[in-house]
Design goal:
By secondary structure, the protein is an alpha/beta fold. Helices cover 41% and strands 13% of the residues. A six-stranded mixed sheet has the order 2-3-1-4-5-6, sandwiched between helices. β4, α5 and β5 form a beta-alpha-beta unit. α4 runs parallel beside α5 and α5 packs across α6.
């Protein structure tokens, strides 16, 4: 190709012809879109956020897991090991991380996904859940499932309430120690806890507000007994250790879940049901997950 041919080629494509104008216009429109797509896909999550599912045996944890995973509950059996499944927020539920994202953002679907880690509720296997709570890699919150019909003091001689309160106390104390430890403190970040009151479709089930007050009252009794035991053993002579070992700090007065906010452990109590004659009702639980996703 001689010099005249090159000059003619450049004159044709760089001159103010309609074709050049159209191509330039299209490139100006497409460049920001292509750049946006590239940046968001290059920053896609390598690890999905997770929620820890805990609670006493028989509360309905595994049934809740299948409901959140598949959209419908399935027949389950008592869990013996930890099980992790991938879930996604249903349509109509918006994760907090996507509140300001465009509806056409290609990363929206990714930000709706999360992992749900189901843990055994048997007393001898609860250390699996507590270990996960102290090493919260990508864990955005903890869902503590209770049977709202079993926590009534009028059923099973109060055994369901005591068992749930004992497990809950142990979990909250573990999170309090984590926040109070020198290596975590504020750097560990908040660890929200949802107390999911399941089986509200049953006639004997307590409403969420009564489940909250019943658990707070029972935890107060357990905390008083524990604090007195520490004092009798001489451990409570150490003021710092006493502060760390008394749930909610200090151990004075009735225990309230609001006390845990000092340790960046906000607690919410919301009702619902996994199964029932009219189907499942997990809307409030989905909203809580979306708020922390």
């Amino acid at each position: 190709m001689d010099l005249k041919s090159i000059e003619a080629f450049l004159t044709h494509w760089l001159g103010p012809s309609p074709a050049v104008v159209i191509i330039t216009f299209l490139l100006a429109l497409a460049s920001p879109l292509l750049l946006h797509t590239y940046l968001y896909r290059s920053k896609a999550r390598t690890h999905l956020p997770a929620f820890l599912l805990v609670g006493p045996s028989g509360a309905g944890k595994t049934s809740l897991m299948t409901l959140l995973e598949r959209g419908a509950p399935a027949a389950t059996h008592t869990s013996q090991t930890t099980l992790t499944v991938e879930c996604s927020l249903p349509l109509g539920k918006i994760p907090a991380s996507s509140r300001f994202r465009s509806a056409n953002d290609p990363s929206n679907q990714v930000h709706r996904k999360f992992l749900l880690i189901d843990t055994p509720g048997h007393g001898k296997l609860r250390h699996l859940a507590l270990d996960s709570a102290t090493k919260p890699q990508n864990i955005k919150g903890i869902v503590f499932v209770v049977d709202a019909a079993a926590v009534s003091a009028d059923t099973q001689d109060g055994g369901g309430l005591t068992e749930a309160a004992q497990y809950l106390s142990e979990l909250l104390l573990t999170l309090q120690r984590r926040a109070s430890s020198g290596k975590s403190s504020r750097g560990s970040g908040a660890m929200p806890v949802l107390i999911a009151c399941n089986k509200l479709d049953l006639f004997t089930a307590l409403p969420a507000k009564l489940v909250r007050s019943s658990l707070e009252s029972e935890v107060t009794k357990l905390r008083t007994t524990r604090t007195q035991g520490l004092l009798d053993s001489g451990i409570g002579m150490d003021e710092d250790l006493d502060e760390q070992e008394a749930l909610g700090g200090g151990g004075e007065g009735p225990f309230k879940f609001d006390l845990m906010e000092e340790y960046e452990v906000p607690v919410e109590v919301l009702g619902g049901n996994v199964t029932g004659a009219d189907g499942s009702d997990a809307g409030k639980w989905w909203d809580w997950i979306g708020k922390h996703l």
